[in-house]
Amino acid sequence: MICPEYLTKGLEEVYNRILYTRMQDIPVVNPSLEVKAVDFQLWHGRCFGVLITPWFMNLILLPNEGDEWEGIGRYQSCSLFSPMFEFADQETAVAAAEAVMAGVMDEENRDSISTRESEIARAWKGEQAPDEIPENSVDTEAPTLTERMEKPISRRELLRGAFLGDNGQ
User: Fold this and answer.
1) Same structural domain for residues 48 and 78?
2) Given a cut of 50, is residue 168 above it in pLDDT?
3) What pLDDT sits at residue 110?
4) Residue 109 CA neighbour count, 13 Å, CB half
5) 17-32 mean pLDDT
6) Do 87 and 157 fall within a single domain?
7) 109 to each of 12, 17, 36, 101, 104, how far by Cα in Å?
8) 37 DSSP β-pair partners
9) What domain range is 11 assigned to?
10) Within 10 Å of residue 157's Cβ, how many Cβ atoms?
11) Mean pLDDT throughout 34-45?
């Protein structure tokens, strides 16, 4: 089922406003492209599709009616391309967006994708899996870079630079 036109048109209006008020003369803007919402459809009760702008192409999951959103509000996105200089024209960008949506929505592709939901949920909460909990909570030797890269960290640890070491990690 296709999403209501007012949602995709509203999304395009917001990003066109951004283009004309904030992005003029910014070097990442591809002047051959325009803002366009491509193949938005209902997915798990929300509108899902690809947004093309002259500076990025993202998968977008829009909020439900009544969710907090001024202009756009809270939405989820996944970057596909940025900047957009790989696209010579709007037609090519739209074709790429349509191909992405066809691939994402293809049931055969979903079976081969491992989302590792429980692992992602633990990482989001900053928890470790039972088999990842160290036996000794005090390290006698600093872990190698490879060991640090294999260990999941919380968003807070990431933002504080915990992956760099030298801060108790």
Assistant:
1) yes
2) no
3) 67
4) 8
5) 95
6) no
7) 29, 36, 25, 12, 7
8) 51
9) 5-111
10) 15
11) 93
